[in-house]
């Protein structure tokens, strides 16, 4: 048995490490318990393909308040990919190409119709309760897109541009997309830029290391937690290896899809349990490819389910070769290490491309994530997620999957970690 701590933080992704830093810097004794043998969770910088690459979350933006505060705090900079004026898009079984202006003259009116009510639905995105959105909460992306009566060509074009965030149109709700767009002034291009453009110098690992360099929390890696017992006066956290930790409060900062593996006593409320059981539907992934030679910068899009690689972009150049970043709507659609299959898939966009090497991580089958970026099913954004952010006895939840804004992003993870630390601080300061 370990000593008793003021706070046990479970999960050392962005949400957990920021909560552990903030609370330990306020003088509380904090233990940070992580299942994997590394920090960062669904952010994971690897030295591969001759560069630092982020195999999980990586893109951030200066408009993201928590991200920017932290990058600024540690003097870490960000950089964009090379400018690409060439765009390829798969639609109606044919690859089309044009300039960025050509492509967006097609996409803009379609997306404008899709998200037309974003700001009316979420006029103050930080307070989603001010408009009754119960009707659209039930809508899936598929319901919304079907109602637009698009031609098959338009549908494929729209599918392609959304493929970087979509795994299943039927299982993902429209509300989260509208909230994200509303947060960026109703401008979907601004939202897409925040979600998919600027990388952290040195990778997300640079930020993780900087935060951890300042924490005073006691860290336990390779220690998956099995159960959490709240007796009303303190919390007992037990790892799979039988280690027991006592704390006055616990912060559970885990991916939604792993919460089913933890035993909570007493159990969370029935609504929270239903949310946990429904899970995050996204089983997408990210694949990095080193290809031979200097490829002219390009971007490519293919509709969900119609090609194994869905959103693709030249991202870096190294020693005469090109690094290409690919988003897979379905991580199971291609084996990341099958160079031949990856080459075939990329040749849809650039016919003579030659793959040198690949790097990826399958988040969908990783037992400590069991999925990709969070996207709410119809019905859970405005009700279940706010409920999860409330204290459950002495247990608080955090993580991008239950964030109030920037759901499913690094920013959302940091936001919830900071908020959970604030709530725990308030509770411990008055007890
Ligand atoms: C392929 C991919 C691309 C993405 N791209 C972007 C992007 O470009 N920009 C962006 O902002 N976001 C992106 N995201 C999302 C972003 O990475 C996540 O939303 C964010 O990192 C989640 O942080 P978190 O702390 O909430 O959860 P996590 O990072 O998942 O951290 C949870 C931690 O809990 C640990 N854990 C799990 N089970 C247990 C257990 N039983 N006991 C103890 N510990 C446990 C895990 O090992 C993990 O370290 C992407 C995600 C993926 C998968």
Proper CATH architecture of the domain at 4-42 and 203-280 and 370-430 = 3-Layer(bba) Sandwich
The CATH class of the domain at 4-42 and 203-280 and 370-430, by name, is Alpha Beta
Radius of gyration: 22 Å
In the CATH scheme, what's the topology name of the domain at 4-42 and 203-280 and 370-430? FAD/NAD(P)-binding domain
The CATH homologous superfamily name of the domain at 4-42 and 203-280 and 370-430 equals FAD/NAD(P)-binding domain
Which hetero ligands occur in this complex?
Answer: flavin-adenine dinucleotide
Mean pLDDT: 96
Helix content: 25-40%
Global geometry: globular
Oligomer: single chain
Beta-strand segment tally: 20
Secondary-structure class: alpha/beta
- Main sheet summary: 8 strands, mixed
Query: How many DSSP H or I helices?
Result: 14
Distance between the termini: 24 Å
Poorly predicted runs of 5 or more residues: none
Strand content: 15-25%
EC number: 1.4.3.-
GO molecular function, one term: monoamine oxidase activity
Catalytic activity: a secondary aliphatic amine + O2 + H2O = a primary amine + an aldehyde + H2O2
InterPro entries: Amino_oxidase, FAD/NAD-bd_sf, Flavin_amine_oxidase, Flavin_MAO
Detailed description of the structure:
This is Amine oxidase. It is a single chain. This protein has 431 residues and is of the alpha/beta class. Among the domains are: 4-42 and 203-280 and 370-430, FAD/NAD(P)-binding domain; 100-186, Polyamine Oxidase, Chain A, domain 2, CATH 3.90.660.10. 32% of the residues lie in helices and 23% in strands. The chain contains 14 helices and 20 strands. It has helices spanning 14-25, 65-74, 100-114, 118-121, 134-137, 141-146, 152-162, 174-183, 188-196, 204-214, 270-278, 339-346, 384-389, 410-430, and strands at residues 4-10, 30-33, 45-48, 51-54, 59-60, 78-79, 86-91, 94-99, 198-200, 218-220, 225-230, 235-239, 244-252, 263-265, 285-291, 298-301, 311-318, 321-328, 355-360, 395-397. Strands 1, 2, 10, 11, 12, 13, 14 and 20 form an eight-stranded mixed β-sheet that branches. The protein has a seven-stranded mixed β-sheet with strand order 8-7-16-17-18-15-19, sandwiched between helices. It has a three-stranded antiparallel β-sheet with strand order 5-9-6. The radius of gyration is 22 Å and the shape is globular. The chain binds flavin-adenine dinucleotide. Residues 10-16, 33-36, 41-43, 56-60, 195, 224-225, 253-255, 258, 261-262, 285-286, 363, 368-369, 372-373, 399-400, 408-411, 413 line the site of flavin-adenine dinucleotide.
